[in-house]
Write a structure and sequence with these properties.
By secondary structure, the chain is an alpha/beta fold. The protein has a single domain, classed as 3-Layer(aba) Sandwich (Rossmann fold). The chain has six helices and eight strands. The strands form two sheets. A six-stranded mixed beta sheet has the order 4-5-1-6-7-8, sandwiched between helices. The chain has a two-stranded antiparallel ribbon with strand order 2-3. β4 and β5 form a beta hairpin. α2 packs across α6. The protein starts with about 20 loop residues before the first helix and ends with a helix.
Length: about 250
């Protein structure tokens, strides 16, 4: 992971929401039309993702149970998409957060979206953990979403086995840097579309097309506020990581 470059976060000029639009960030035309997302999927896409069906191993009677295996998972995405909420909803400990009050200095730089009532922002990372079973324990690291903290992604991604990229279906352009980062890093990831207000702005098929991600990348809908919904999304990340590890071992 040491050789992975930080995501190419475009610097948004001052100018409010318009400055944080896809056109301003990525040089796209300002005309109307369908969301085009990135230029295209990775040149060589892995085979389509298929959930594994293997049963979990059960320790033999009489033997002391081994401590759970620690697994590092990233919760990434753009600014204000629900990363801190995701970590807090599932963590079995009081989550470590680095939230700071948003000030007028962020106007035109940090855009939480028109529907957001967000008043704080993550300035370093979020941390939480959850025990899956007697053999696995997930350690969750939430990444900062602002442009100026993009340099931290290399350190946070070191040692991670997978990532959940949280997406707001109404602001898909904000998640492109995260997807590009994990594709370059070769880290298994799952795109989780956060259902704000219980609904999506686009269908999942439209979101997959707009993000230009292949069939090998799982795309799920979840609610960042609901513990069970977050659990299901993280289990897909874990399954994706195990599937990658199994294929690499057989290669």
């Amino acid at each position: 992971m040491d050789s992975v470059r930080s995501p190419e976060w475009p610097v948004a000029p001052l100018g409010g929401v318009a400055a944080n639009s896809a056109a301003a960030r990525y040089g796209m035309s300002s005309g109307t039309g369908p969301i085009v997302g990135r230029a295209g999927p990775p040149p060589t896409a892995p085979p389509p993702y298929r959930p594994s069906s293997g049963a979990a191993s059960v320790p033999s009677p009489g033997k002391p149970a081994a401590p759970p295996i620690p697994v590092k998972i990233l919760v990434a995405g753009g600014f204000g998409v629900g990363k801190t909420t995701t970590v807090g909803a599932i963590s079995e400990i009081a989550p470590l957060t680095t939230e700071a009050e948003m000030t007028t200095a962020g106007i035109g730089v940090d855009d939480p979206g028109a529907r957001s009532t967000k008043t704080t922002t993550t300035v370093a990372m979020d941390f939480g953990c959850v025990t899956i079973d007697r053999s696995l324990k997930l350690y969750l690291f939430g990444t900062p979403g602002q442009t100026r903290f993009g340099f931290m992604w290399d350190d946070l991604a070191r040692g991670a086995l997978g990532a959940l990229v949280v997406v707001d279906s109404a602001r898909l352009d904000d998640c492109f840097p995260a997807i590009d980062f994990f594709e370059r890093a070769g880290l298994p990831f799952v795109v989780g579309v956060n259902a704000f207000d219980g609904r999506l702005a686009l269908e999942l098929g439209e979101i997959r097309w707009a993000l230009a991600i292949g069939d090998h990348v799982p795309l799920v809908q979840f609610d960042a506020r609901d513990r069970l919904s977050v659990r299901d999304a993280l289990l897909v990340v874990l399954d994706r990581a195990l599937d990658r590890a199994t294929r690499d071992r057989r290669a």
